[in-house]
Amino acid sequence: xxxxxxxxxxxxxxxxxxxxxxxxxxxxxxxxxxxxxxxxxxxxxxxxxxxxxxxxxxxxxxxxxxxxxxxxxxxxxxxxxxxxxxxxxxxxxxxxxxxxxxxxxxxxxxxxxxxxxxxxxxxxxxxxxxxxxxxxxxxxxxxxxxxxxxxxxxxxxxxxxxxxxx
Length: 166
Hints:
There is one protein chain. The chain is α+β, with helices and mostly antiparallel strands. It has 4 helices and 4 strands; from the N terminus they run βαβααβαβ. The chain has helices at residues 11-20, 46-72, 88-111, 144-157, and strands spanning 2-8, 29-32, 135-141, 161-165. Strands 2-3-1-4 form a 4-stranded antiparallel beta sheet. Helix 2 (46-72) runs antiparallel to helix 3 (88-111). The longest helix has 27 residues, at 46-72. The protein is rod-shaped.
């Protein structure tokens, strides 16, 4: 598999290049930029995921404590009723918050596609500049025909630099 990395000076140049590489024909496109693209959605799915995990954790642990107190181990302690739900609220809340935080922690890695300890893009000389002041477009290609076609498209776009790795 070959990879091409093109460096662009502005976000507008990168967007022009993205228009020339439709996702249907070029499924292996990756963008590296110092800032999020202005056309990208600003909303993350993580808050909704964390809320759902927190609520499910709260309800699940509340039901678990209810089952344990009323069915599995029913004890009459000091005249307390069989279903003493106020005592379950604080620990169920804390465990719900724990579930939300674990979902947020794991979800962050899933959304950011981490941990990715090595990628071929790290071998390119221009990849480091993409973290600071350049917009990069990486195209991964399997066939030689696609590689020559990608080179032809990049020649019309006039990137600052174009690197190829096999």
